[in-house]
Amino acid sequence: MKVVITKDYTEMCKLASRIFAAEITLKPDCVLGLATGSTPVGMYKELVEMYNEHRVDFSQVKTVNLDEYAGLSGDNDQSYRYFMNHNLFDHINKENTNVPNGTAADLEAECERYEQVVASMGGVDVQLLGIGNNGHIAFNEPCEEFPEKTHVVNLTQNTIEANARFFASMDDVPKKALTMGIGTIMKAKKIVLLANGAKKAQTIYDTVYGPITPKVPASILRLHPDVTIFVDEEAGALLKK
Ligand code: GLP
Which residue of 42, 125, 131, 169 has the fewest C-beta atoms within 10 A of its own C-beta? Predict the structure, then answer.
């Protein structure tokens, strides 16, 4: 695992965006694993800027997102499909984008379908991750065992509270989500995790130095052969001590 402490959020986003742009240059039909949350917004802006300057071409790129809230359709402005359209897809020449369907009649079947979609593409070349305050990646919450495949998850109170800032009220935050499993994520050839702000400092410390345990889902990334974590000074503050 490589850890890069950047001067600030802007530098973190610029460096991470170059990894994705380089991947597209080297493999124009690559599969990108994408993430939501406030953290990657700046990186998506960088990619849109590169696209506008004709430095990157998404026409053959395939994307698969990590997760989606159960019960929210793609036109709901709190859904992750909406987030991706708004922050990236509407601004680039994308062709093939995939986000789990949160309103599928049978959510378990949707998880199986999604797992197949990822497999049929030959797996993810570069996977982007954020991290929850409690160490969750995608919506893999702290638990007793690392979940392997795409599955339906009950969100923890910690995550519901953390994500309530995007909703009108706490009651509006969905209590369930569909998420790629830890096994699905670990199969990606390369993983880039981003974290900024003091709130993430402890979980970044636990991820890098703590025990590898499903109680800190991101800690398993230490077993992956190609992971780079970019943190700003605040999120990396405890690493320096
Ligand atoms: C959600 C997403 C995660 C994301 C996390 C952190 O729970 N499912 O993929 O990493 O939020 O969000 P933020 O970047 O806003 O801190």
Answer: 169
